[in-house]
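Subject: Sanity check before I submit

Could someone independently write out the structure tokens for this chain? I want to compare against mine line by line before I put it in a report. The sequence has 166 residues.
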Amino acid sequence: MHQDYSIPTQTRIGHVHLKVADLERAIDFYCGLLGFEIMARYGDQAAFISAGGYHHHIGLNTWYSKDAPPAPRNGVGLFHTAIVYPTRKDLATIFNRLRHAGYPISGASDHGVSEALYLNDPDSNGVELYWDRPKELWQFLEDGTIEMFTKSLDLKGLLGELDPVK
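---
Independent answer below. Compare away.
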């Protein structure tokens, strides 16, 4: 039925827009802790944030959610927002920043094709911070599909990417 169409190969996800209970608290997390920059703001109702000057990678708003409790864990909705870092050292840097801030992570995994840290934002929205290994290092199964797995991430090894403090 849908076999005659394939999405263009250059298609990508442009942004995610999150409903949050407290805009300032969300900005503190995404901008203050993770380092995104505010590109546009609509008073105390919405902000559009970015990495590198793009118009926005993440939208944050309180239009339907001001002071609301988190969505139930066992309901439908967004599982997590995945933020890809350019290098393993960049992932180590944000991990170190989270550690020094005392911000809890809920998981750390090696997926073969990537290494990832998992945490929740202040509204309990899942966030994955990861970097992709170069494609030439990916493993493939006999049928041509990617071999992905979930193994424990060596966090000490990840921190080894950082320059020693002098």
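---
OP: Matches mine. For the report I'm noting this point. The chain has a mean pLDDT of 95.
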